[in-house]
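Write out the 3D structure for:
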Amino acid sequence: MVQTKDTVIVRHPLQPVTADEITNTIAILLGQKGLDKNTVRFISVSLKEPPKQTVYAFKEGEKFERQTFTVVLNSLTGEVFEAVVNLSTTVITSWEQITGVQPTMTADEQVECEEVVKKDAGFQAALKRYGITNPDLVMVDIWTAGNYGAEEESSVRLARPLCFVRADETDNGYAHPIEGLRPVVDLNAMKVIRVEEFDMTPIPPDAGNYRADKLTSFRGGLKPLEIIQPEGPSFTVNGYEVNWQQWNFHIGFGSREGLTLNYITYDDAGNVRPVLYRASLSEMVVPYGDPGPTQNKKNAFDTGEYGMGQCANSLTLGCDCLGYIKYFDAVLNNSRGEPFVIKNAICMHEEDYGILWKHTDRRSGHAEVRRSRRLVISSISTVENYEYGFFWYLYQDGNIQFEIKLTGILSLGALDAGIKPKYGNLVAPQLYAPNHQHFFNMRLDFDLDGVNNSVYELNVVADEPGDYNPYQNAFYASTTLLETEQKARRNMNLETSRTWKIVNPSRKNAYGEPVGYKFMPGDNCVPFAAKTSSWYQRAGFVENHFWVTPFNTKEFYGAGDYPNQHKGGDGLVKWTSADRNVADTDIVVWYTMGHTHIPRPEDYPVMPAAYIGFLLKPNGFFNANPANDLPPAEKKKQPGENGSCCC
C-alpha cells in the first residue's frame, strides 16, 4: 500500500474521496467520538453522494458541501457503526450503531489472518500429517464463513480459510491444495479457534506453472501489433469527468463496488440528455456445487464480503491496456484509517470496433462506410485466486455495453489417485476443479431524459394462422408495463426473445412514442442450488434476472448492506416485498447475470477469459441513427499495394 500526499482538486460533487478527505474524516471521528485507533477498524471511507437535485443544479466553479460515509468496527466489542461526516463543517451528522451484522473484510485482516494461521501450533501440527514442515510455504486464502445456522456464525466475526502449499515462493500454490484442512479464525480476536480436519488426501504433484520465468519455451510467429494515435485521443478529461463523442460522464470508485460510472449524458445536437445517473456492480456471489466436507461451504460474496475496490489491480500499459491510455488512480483507506493509492486502478482508451454502418449502391458502385470506435473504461480486481475484469463500453451510436471478463486460477481440490470426481473435472493428476457458478447483480439508476421513468417488458408473439395471417409468418412485439415491484420481478425467456424497455413517458420522439432505451441481456443461467440453501437465502437477487425498484438512497446492494455471515432475506427480496409503484417515477433497474462453469482441462493452470454482460441500446431515444454524421475514415492501402483502395 502506497502512502500519498493528496494534491487532488475536488471539481465536482460526484468526484471520489481524496486522501486528504479520508485523513480529515478519520481525525474528526477519532476526536469527536473518542475512538481508540488501535482497537477499531475503519472498514471503508467513501463519498456520501449528494442529492440528485444538487448534482443536476451544479455549475462548474460553484462551491459545494462534501460528506463522507464510514463503516467503523470495534474489534474489542464487535460493535458496528455507520458515520456520516460533513467535511465542510467538520461535524458528524450521523452516528448509528448497526446491530447483528459483520461488515466487509479488509485487506489488512486478510494479511493478518494468514499470518496468525501459519503461526498457530495446532495448524502446524496438522500440516505435519501432509509432510509439510515449513509453514512459510503455506498459502492461507481467507474465505468468509457464511451462515449455516450455528450461533457462532452470527455472533463471531469468522473466516474459514482454504490452504495450499508452494514448493518455493514463485510456485503456483493453487496447484497444491491441502484438502481436508480448514482452520477457523476469529477475526476480531485474530486467533485460530479450531482446525477442522477431514479425510487426508495427498498433495497433487503437478507443478501447474504459468509464470513466464517458470516456462522453458514460447511459441513463435507473433509479430508486433501497434496502436498509434499520433494526434492523441478523442476524449478530454477534467479531474474524473470525461467528454467523448457526445458522451459526458463522471468516473467513480469505492472500496466495495470498485468502478462506477455516474451522471452519463449524451449531447444530441446541443441538447444534453441524461441517460444513466449511476451504474455499478451491486453484488456478486460464487457458489460451489461440491458437497464434499472441504468444499461444501464454499461461496463468496466478492463485493459485500471482500470489497471489489480494495482488490483492484494497478494496471500496466501493454498488458492490461493497449493503446493511448488515460489512467485514473483510486484512493482508499486501510483499516487503521490511513489513505493509500492504487495507481492506475482505472484504464480508459479508445478501440476500433469494426464497421458501424455500411451501404454499397450496386448501381453506381459507390460505398459509404463508417467505422465504429468505442470508449473503454475498465478495472480489474483479484479476489484471491480469481480475476474479474469490469469493462464499460460507450459507442458512437448511443449504445452502452457492460462486460465482465472472468479469468485467474480455479479454486482447486485434491483427489486420491484413480478417482474421477462427480461434481467437477480433473485438470491435472489428482487435481480437480469443482463445478461452480458466478452471479453478478448490477444496479442501473436510470434518469432517461429526466428523473421519472417506466419499464415495459417486450415479448415477441407469433400470430395465430388466420385471415390476418394467411401465410403464417406474422409476429409482433407485445408490450407490458411493469407497474409495481412484484410485477417487475422477471426472468429471461428465449422463447419470446424477451427484453425490457426503459422509457420516459413524458418525453416523446418525432413519432409520438416515449423516448426509450432497450435492455438486452446476454448469456445467463439460473442457480442449481435449492432455494433453501444457505447461500441462496443470502443472495436473494439470484431468484430473478430482472428487478425494478423506486429510487431510494439506502438501497444500493442487491443482497443488503451486510451480507457477510448474514442469515439472508435482505436486499432486493426484502425491499420489493413492499410492492411499491415503479411506473412514471424515479426508478432503479437491477439485473442478475450468471455464468455456469463446468471446468475443463483447458482452464488450467490459468483460465482463459470467459465473458458475460448486457447491452443498453437506444430504442426511440433518437429520431434517426445518431451516428449518421460520423465523418468517413481515411482510405488506406496495404504496404506495397498499388492502385486505388477498395473501400
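The domain at 19-98 is CATH 3.10.450.40 (Nuclear Transport Factor 2; Chain: A,).
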